[in-house]
Amino acid sequence: MSNINPRWGSWATPPEPFKPEDFRETYETEVLVIGAGIAGLSCAYSAAECGCKVTVMEKLPTYHGFAHNVGVVNSRFMRSLGIVNDPDEVAREWIKRCANRCDERLVRLFVDRSEEAMDWALDLVERPEYGGVRVNLQGAAYQGDTYKELYSAHVFYDGPVARSGKFGGLNEIMEPMYRESLKLGTRFLFNTTMLQLIKKDGRVVGAAGQTEDGKLIAVYAGRGVLVATGGIGGNEEMCEDLCPIANRVAVKANFPKGIDLGEGHRAALWAGAAFEDGPFPTMMHPQAIRHSNYCFLFVTPKGRRFMNEDSYLQGRSLGIVKTGYKWCWTIFDSDWARKVPETLKYGGGIYWGESFDYVGGKPFDEEDTRKKIEASLKSGSSVMADTPRELAEKMGVDPDTFEETFNNYNEYCRKGHDDELGKRPELLIPLDKPPFIARKFGAALLSVVGGVKVDEKFRALDENNDPVPGLYVLGNTMAGRYGVDYPMLLPGNSTGSGLTYGYLLGRNFGKEKAEGK
Predict the structure, then answer these.
(1) Beta-carbon neighbour count of residue 92 at 10 Å?
(2) What is the mean pLDDT of the segment spanning 483-498?
């Protein structure tokens, strides 16, 4: 097949299609959604709300939304706080940060329609039967011009999911979507793994699945099949072929276990869809030990600086990975309680210092930070010493090299110019109050966020950029959002775009049904 690169591994080889007699059970539906993450569940609920008969196939026992925040351009909640972002400025900056390799049509759809989608979700979670959900914005955002982050990430607390003792966050949106979808007659086939798509006369008409007990089933969809099965991060072979850097991180934070194995990518490819140019973009956070990194002095296990420490979370993660080491070190001194807050007006953001709520949150919680430092010293992920040389010995780093690096850095701070890597003078804060602390930090892969090419109607495209009839792709299975790397202009924009695109595709299915198409 011309859409398959002959250099790819065995994962790209299409299996033999199933025959009708292979299936123990068959189902009929109008819209088949494969994957019950935020993109899939949003589409399922939106389509059902518009009168479509919907079936959802999901390999896990339930829907899954393991994310803390949902980033959109604007919302009525943001407007109530006096925060209004300019969609045109957001689009221009987004495209620039993606090196012009993203699909501008898809970016514009998100930028122009994400407020509508978030307000739709807020309407749902604020219903009396789902009462108690508290909405806020994530307050941690990078303040410098180079990596500017906008307030956009909605966080949800105290809803029915959290009250049941489970992780809330994004699930506080998804639980109401799931309940309302059930009320509207949506069928959920949980513990059912999609094996391949079913084609007839060149059109994708359904999917073959396998239940938990090994039974083969077929679901036929008269209106369309949506594949939204997540990324490829958990599949080492696919990553090596399509995104090698994803295999170089310290930790793969693919949660819950079993997601991000690339089933949707493979099935779409076998059905005739094409991938965007590689390597696929990644979403990484420097959270492999889940501690704040700050911005003072970063060194490799060889004791040398490797990047300008004034960077955002994706940049810090990539900086570590490019060294060839799984872990690097962030250095600070015992005056951290005074020095860290000074940096927040120039930088900040997730894992710089702390994540906090926009309304009522503390930009810096000294007591909580102190507890985390003490815990890291106890666990061994941080070490402390009275001199740079002693610190290097505890780090397992060459003392001469580290001492030279440490002294050079302090000299740059003294004269107000970073001769080595050009850090802004405002952030050249000396490390001059012992004892000194070194903490390990590494990159965690959240997901590989690239894949199947789609058009502005979310139809999968073949190698000629023509739609594959009947096939739609969303979420981390789709291409076009990022091009090269995850842009943190709007924190939480992956879940935000999943919400937005799912909402829009469901509306599209409903509109086509109403028009008799």
Answers:
(1) 13
(2) 95
Q: Answer yes or no: are the C-beta atoms of 303 and 274 closer than 8 Å.
A: no
> Nearest Cα to 492, choosing from 118, 239, 125, 241?
118
Compute the distance between CA of residue 78 and CA of residue 150 in angstroms, rounded to an integer: 11
Domain at 287-355+364-442, CATH class: alpha beta
Place of tokens 């949003």: 42
What is the distance between the alpha carbons of residues 455 and 460, in angstroms, rounded to a whole number? 7
Q: How far is CA 134 from the centre of its chain?
A: 23
Q: Rounded CA gap, 86 and 199, in Å?
A: 43
Give the separation between CA 459 and CA 452, rounded to whole angstroms. Answer: 10
One DSSP character per residue, 274-290 reads: -BPSSSPPEEEES-SS-
> What does residue 438 show for φ and ψ, rounded to 5 degrees?
-120, 130
Residue 166's pLDDT band, with cuts at 50, 70 and 90, is confident
Instruction: For residue 340, give Cα distances in angstroms to 348, 365, 366, 372, 390.
Output: 9, 11, 10, 14, 23
pLDDT at 1: 62
How far is residue 75 from each of residues 22, 78, 207, 280, 371, measured CA to CA in Å? 48, 5, 36, 30, 36
Distance spanning both ends of the chain, measured CA to CA: 31
Phi, psi values for residue 185, rounded to 5°: 90, 10
Q: What pLDDT sits at residue 297?
A: 98
pLDDT digits over 271-294, tens only? 999 999 999 999 999 999 878 999
What tokens appear for 371 in the block? 């507890």
Dihedral over alpha carbons 141, 143, 148, 151 (to 10 degrees): 40
Give the class (CATH, top level) of 10-15+26-281+450-514.
alpha beta
pLDDT score of 231 more than 90: yes
* CA 463/CA 411 separation, integer angstroms: 55
Find, among 202, 187, 224, 226, the residue nearest to 37 by Cα.
226
How far is it, in rounded angstroms, from Cα 341 to Cα 322?
29
Give me the pLDDT at residue 517, please: 84
Task: Work out the average pLDDT over 387-404.
Answer: 98
Inter-residue contact 172 to 164 (CB < 8 Å): no
- Structural domain boundaries of the chain? 10-15+26-281+450-514, 287-355+364-442
| Segment 299-350, tens digit of pLDDT | 999 999 999 999 999 999 999 999 999 999 999 999 999 999 999 999 999 9
Q: In DSSP terms, which residues pair with 137 in a beta bridge?
A: 154
